[in-house]
Amino acid sequence: MKTILTIAGSDTSAGAGIQQDLKTITSLGHYAVTVPTALTAQNTTGVKMVMTVPQEMLRAQLDAVLDDISVAAVKIGMIPDVTSARIIVAAIRQLDVPTVCDPVMLSTSGTQLMSDECIDYITNALIPLCTLVTPNIPEALRLANVTDKQDSDSIGQKLVSLLHTAVLIKGGHAEGDEMRDTLYCTDGTTHWYCSPRIATTNLHGTGCTMSSAIATLLAEGIPLAEAVQGAKAVIDKGIAAGRTLRIGKGNGPLWLF
């Protein structure tokens, strides 16, 4: 059993954030330790309020975990501000383990969860320390500082060059009957992961599930391209199993068990 550290926001509806990370890691047979960066008041209809964890508490949480527990991989999710980002960068520099960054910039309902200053900072200071970054299409456009929808390959290759790490662009925001995620590696190779789009209104937490599953599989020693394939299977299974759930009035969760 491996121990995976997730550094992310807390979700009161438990469909995303550290709650979903914990469930994903547990479903794959491993142990999760959790450091919340922010508390959110949210449900399946949207985010109502966000409160950043004070910097002293964020640092104390990371110190408490890393002073005592050996982690085999890290997943990083919501980072609310640049002060929090600097604390996380200092912690990641102490480690030499696979690290997956899911740059949670906007909630599904459209609430901005990361400041522009923080986005610019993680682009230069945090993401280059990571094994993989997993933006969706709007996040990829923001990281690449482009406003027009260029083709995915141009954006992916630009991001690899800019960020000095592998990039997985998630295709859930694209139209069509096929879900396609594309992995751009630092060695110049590209990998495509395609599956039929499942008709459902329950898609809350897909990005958190994907990134924490990849981190967990990397902790097992699985190569990156295969880890993404395994995580994609987790997502597809979770969407299919969760499509009949009736939890809340809006965008419900996946089901991983």
Task: Please describe what this structure looks like.
It contains eight helices and nine strands. With 257 residues, it is an alpha/beta fold. It has a nine-stranded mixed sheet with strand order 3-2-1-4-5-6-7-8-9, sandwiched between helices. Helix 1 crosses helix 7 (206-219), helix 2 runs parallel beside helix 3 (82-92) and helix 3 (82-92) runs parallel beside helix 4 (116-126). The protein is globular, with a radius of gyration of 17 Å. The two termini are 18 Å apart. The model has no long low-confidence stretch (mean pLDDT 92).
What's the short story on this structure?
The chain has 257 residues and is of the alpha/beta class. It is built from eight helices and nine strands.
The spatial strand order of the largest sheet comes to: 3-2-1-4-5-6-7-8-9
Radius of gyration: 17 Å
* Run of helices and strands: EHEEHEHEHEHHEEEHH
Question: Which outline best applies?
Answer: globular
Keyword list:
alpha/beta, single chain, 257 residues, 8 helices
Task: Summarize the topology.
Blueprint: E1 3-11, H1 17-27, E2 31-43, E3 46-52, H2 55-68, E4 73-76, H3 82-92, E5 99-101, H4 116-126, E6 132-133, H5 137-143, H6 152-163, E7 166-169, E8 178-184, E9 190-196, H7 206-219, H8 224-242
Parallel strand pairs: 1-2, 1-4, 4-5, 5-6, 6-7
Antiparallel strand pairs: 2-3, 7-8, 8-9
Helix pairs in contact: 1-7, 2-3, 3-4, 5-6, 7-8
